[in-house]
Design goal:
- By secondary structure, the chain is mainly alpha-helical.
- It has two domains: 74 residues, Homeodomain-like (Arc Repressor Mutant, subunit A, Orthogonal Bundle), CATH 1.10.10.60; 128 residues, Tetracycline Repressor, domain 2.
- Helix 2 crosses helix 8, helix 7 packs across helix 8 and helix 7 packs across helix 11.
- The chain is elongated.
Length: 212
């Protein structure tokens, strides 16, 4: 019996895990899953390509083969896996006077989701410090979701209405989930929707809250 066979086998196995995969595995998908885990846990600043490679069990060069930069990797890992614009149209459908309640329910439930919530908050935190991430968040959330809703419910200037509504949504998310300021941090989702729904309706429809 060879005493070195087991270490050699382990080394060979490690090399096969870290090299290009030829067994039909979704290597790009595995890397994205690992990136979502790393960036959600460590944030955009501390998360690294090497950390993602370790999480995925591949060589860092393989990560760079699929993604040209850390920014691209972060953006693709955090991107929702459904059509946000179509979802926004569904949020806008129904009574326009209740659109704020539907939008607030969407965001409050997203923040509370154990998988989606940390990703959304990580995106928002990164957007505060990195202009390239802020541009992505604006395109992904402000334009595809909020601005689409504003246009569907007849806001005179959907772009302005969207950025105004977004400031309320993002600010609430930061205070509740990052700063964790009380009593807002412990307020129930139903209470948040009830309190912010009317305000959000006016902002999404491009009307001043003072006119309520």
């Amino acid at each position: 019996m060879s005493g070195g066979s087991q270490p050699e086998a382990a080394l060979a196995e490690g090399r096969s895990r870290r090299g290009p995969r030829t067994d039909g595995a979704d290597t790009r998908g595995d890397i994205l899953g690992a990136a979502a885990t790393v960036f959600t846990r460590e944030g955009y600043e501390r998360g690294s390509v090497r950390g993602v490679a370790r999480e995925a069990g591949v060589d860092p060069a393989l990560v760079r083969h699929y993604f040209s930069s850390k920014q691209e990797l972060f953006v693709e890992a955090m991107r929702p896996q459904f059509d946000l614009r179509e979802h926004a149209k569904r949020l806008a459908a129904g009574d326009p006077e209740l659109v704020g309640f539907r939008v607030m329910t969407f965001f409050v439930e997203a923040w509370a989701d154990p998988v989606v919530g940390p990703r959304v908050i990580s995106l928002m935190r990164a957007a505060l410090e990195h202009r390239e991430v802020a541009a992505f968040v604006r395109g992904l959330i402000v334009e595809r979701v909020i601005e689409t809703v504003c246009a569907e419910v007849g806001a005179p200037d959907p772009r302005q209405a969207a950025i105004t509504a977004a400031s309320q949504i993002f600010g609430l998310a930061m205070i509740r989930h990052v700063a964790r300021m009380e009593p807002l941090a412990s307020e129930t989702p139903a209470s948040l929707v009830a309190r912010y729904g009317p305000i959000m309706t006016h902002l999404l429809r491009g009307r001043a809250v003072a006119q309520a």
